[in-house]
Design brief:
heterodimer, A: alpha/beta, Elongation Factor Tu (Ef-tu), domain 3, Rossmann fold, six-stranded antiparallel beta sheet, 32% strand, B: Sulfite Oxidase, Chain A, domain 2, 2 helices, 31% strand, globular
Chain lengths: 237, 199
């Protein structure tokens, strides 16, 4: 669980104007659960090392793992990973890590996912794990984001069109696509009351995003009547 | 083989001997909690110390805040790799609460409002190394950081400093807490990088 191994950057794909997904080949990867994260360790020529944790944004696929990175302004690691880390080069990885904020494919209850910004990454890993099953519980993602340009995982989310048991709602906070009925702004408590995912159906709820967003949404879910121990959270920064 | 992370350079130098291995310094105060933040009113708040024989010592909020208070300035180290220097707290030393409690226990099992638990040797709560903290940076501790009161054991990774603390059970045998049962290290010394099982 806790050994460092070497992985190679196979490719980098675009999630938004600024964010990228890094596809890494990690020989001997033991597999992981959707929602888990990895540590990445970078080493400078002078021996200086930095380690950061990133959520895995796709389910286990043999030796192939994916992390999605939003570059932080003036960050030490994230801008390097997004802009400078060359394809074919190596990086050290350690994981998978985390055993609470995970979805196991043998769970049968409905799953309500609430994402704020880049917090969508581990939740899309769960959604993808569900999509890999021929049948399984209903999933619903409520995705809060600033504007349409900031939407990650567009191909996966667009593939849900026409499905009823797996769906996504968008809550744009600053700029909505043309024709949007919903006024821009923060998620309201009532928007988390989704048919099929009400407290009476006892869904498993996962909330991930910036601290203030998670506080707001987790409190709203509890206020709606969800049991606190059914609301799992992960906060960024 | 290609070079390891070629072109990567440090952009900030950590002040060497204050930062444990694998940590980076932050100016913010990140929040990490496994679930919703419980709302705990101080008029209902109790802190209960239970010995291995079942003896209970209970403090209400007025009783806790009437005890001699300690001002603590300390560095925090979170297992998610951020560290924060010179955080300022006020609270009651565990030495004060354990004084006069008759026990043979070697372990402490910490419980919180909301169901969180953590464990550590009882010795780590003694000798001026642990507090029930209710004030941060001169203000009442915000709920998302564990208010009204949290355990503060800053020489261990921060998940040991249980938010919304409600009590401590003194035990003859060790028992894993929440994160400890999910893969985190039983002790959690930042200077020995005891993050997960096997470290």
């Amino acid at each position: 669980m806790s050994r460092w191994t070497t992985a190679r950057l196979v490719s980098r794909t675009k999630e938004s104007d600024t964010a990228r997904t890094l596809h890494l080949d990690a020989p001997g990867w033991p597999g992981h659960l959707a929602g888990q994260h990895v540590d990445l360790r970078l080493t400078a020529d002078d021996g200086y090392q930095a380690v950061r944790s990133y959520s895995l944004s796709a389910p286990a696929d043999g030796d192939r793992i994916a992390v999605s990175v939003q570059p932080a302004p003036y960050g030490e690691v994230s801008p390097y990973l997004v802009e400078d880390f060359p394809e074919g080069a190596d990086i050290e990885v350690r994981g998978p890590l985390g055993g609470w904020f995970v979805w196991r494919p043998d769970r049968t209850e409905p799953v309500l996912l609430v994402a704020g910004g880049s917090g969508v990454a581990p939740l899309v890993a769960m959604l993808r794990a569900r999509l890999a099953l021929p049948e399984g519980p209903a999933f619903h993602l409520v995705y809060s984001l600033r504007g349409p340009q900031e939407r990650w995982f567009g191909d996966t989310l667009d593939s849900l069109a026409g499905r009823t048991e797996i769906a996504v709602d968008y809550a744009y906070t600053r700029e909505a696509p043309p024709g949007s009925a919903r006024p821009v702004g923060r998620i309201q408590q009532a928007e988390l009351l989704v048919d099929g995912f009400t407290p009476a159906q006892a869904p498993l709820c996962f909330v991930c995003g910036p601290t203030a967003f998670v506080e707001h949404c987790a409190n709203a879910l509890v206020a709606l009547g969800h049991r606190p121990d059914r609301v799992r959270t992960e906060r960024f920064g | 083989m290609a070079a390891l992370t070629p072109g990567f350079r440090s952009r900030r130098r950590a002040p060497g001997d204050r930062l444990p291995p694998g940590q980076f310094l932050t100016e913010g105060f990140p929040v990490l909690s496994a679930g919703p933040t419980p709302a705990v009113a101080t008029d209902r708040w109790r802190f209960t110390l239970t010995t291995e024989t079942g003896d209970q010592h209970v403090w209400t909020w007025p009783q806790l805040t009437a005890l001699p208070q300690a001002d603590v300035t300390t560095d925090l180290h979170c297992v998610t790799r951020w560290s924060k220097f010179d955080t300022r707290w006020r609270g009651v030393s565990l030495d004060m609460l354990l004084d006069g409690v008759d026990t043979e226990a070697r372990y402490a099992w910490v419980e919180s409002y909301g169901g969180y638990t953590t464990n550590m040797p009882l010795a780590d709560l003694r000798n001026g190394r642990a507090w029930i903290a209710h004030t941060y940076d001169g203000r009442p501790l915000p709920a998302e950081h564990g208010g009204p009161a949290r355990l503060l054991v800053p020489h261990l990774y921060l998940w040991k400093s249980a938010k919304w603390v409600s009590g401590i059970r003194l035990r003859i045998n060790d028992q894993q807490g929440f994160w400890e049962s999910l893969g985190y290290h039983a002790y959690g010394d930042p200077w020995r990088e005891q993050r997960t099982w096997g470290d």
